[in-house]
Amino acid sequence: MIIMALENIGPETETKEYKKSTGELKESIFSIVAILNKHQKGELYFGIQFP
Protein backbone atom coordinates (compact mmCIF):
# COMPACT_ATOMS: atom_id res chain seq x y z
CA MET A 1 0.00 0.00 0.00
CA ILE A 2 2.75 2.48 0.90
CA ILE A 3 4.66 1.68 -2.29
CA MET A 4 1.56 2.49 -4.35
CA ALA A 5 1.24 5.85 -2.59
CA LEU A 6 4.88 6.67 -3.37
CA GLU A 7 4.30 5.85 -7.03
CA ASN A 8 1.41 8.32 -7.07
CA ILE A 9 3.37 11.22 -5.57
CA GLY A 10 6.71 10.40 -7.21
CA PRO A 11 10.28 10.37 -5.96
CA GLU A 12 12.01 13.02 -3.89
CA THR A 13 13.29 15.92 -5.97
CA GLU A 14 14.98 19.25 -5.28
CA THR A 15 11.54 20.71 -4.46
CA LYS A 16 9.89 17.67 -2.85
CA GLU A 17 11.00 16.00 0.38
CA TYR A 18 9.58 13.18 2.48
CA LYS A 19 9.94 12.64 6.23
CA LYS A 20 8.85 9.53 8.11
CA SER A 21 7.26 11.46 10.99
CA THR A 22 6.88 14.82 12.63
CA GLY A 23 9.59 13.58 15.01
CA GLU A 24 11.96 14.92 12.36
CA LEU A 25 10.45 18.39 12.65
CA LYS A 26 13.70 20.30 13.30
CA GLU A 27 15.43 18.66 10.31
CA SER A 28 12.29 19.26 8.24
CA ILE A 29 12.30 22.97 8.96
CA PHE A 30 15.90 23.27 7.78
CA SER A 31 15.05 21.28 4.66
CA ILE A 32 11.99 23.28 3.66
CA VAL A 33 13.76 26.60 4.33
CA ALA A 34 16.63 25.54 2.05
CA ILE A 35 14.19 24.40 -0.65
CA LEU A 36 12.21 27.65 -0.46
CA ASN A 37 15.34 29.81 -0.50
CA LYS A 38 16.61 28.09 -3.64
CA HIS A 39 13.38 27.46 -5.57
CA GLN A 40 10.75 29.76 -3.97
CA LYS A 41 8.37 26.76 -3.86
CA GLY A 42 8.43 23.25 -2.50
CA GLU A 43 6.59 20.37 -0.90
CA LEU A 44 7.25 18.56 2.37
CA TYR A 45 5.37 15.37 3.21
CA PHE A 46 5.24 13.65 6.58
CA GLY A 47 4.40 10.01 7.17
CA ILE A 48 6.37 8.58 4.25
CA GLN A 49 9.24 6.19 4.83
CA PHE A 50 11.22 4.57 2.04
CA PRO A 51 11.80 0.82 2.38
Description:
- Helix content is 45%, strand content 16%.
- By secondary structure, the chain is an alpha+beta fold.
- It has one domain (2-46).
- Strands 1-2 form a two-stranded parallel ribbon.
- Strand 1, helix 2 and strand 2 form a beta-alpha-beta unit.
- It starts with a helix and ends in a 5-residue tail after the last strand.
- The model has no long low-confidence stretch (mean pLDDT 84).
**Beta-strand content estimate:** 15-25%
* Shape label: flat
Taking pLDDT < 50 over at least 5 consecutive residues as the criterion, the unreliable ranges are none
Helix content: 40-55%
Spatial order of strands in the largest sheet? 1-2
Q: Structural class of the secondary structure composition?
A: alpha+beta
Number of E-state strands: 2
SSE blueprint and pairings:
Elements: H1 2-9, E1 16-19, H2 25-39, E2 43-46
Parallel strand pairs: 1-2
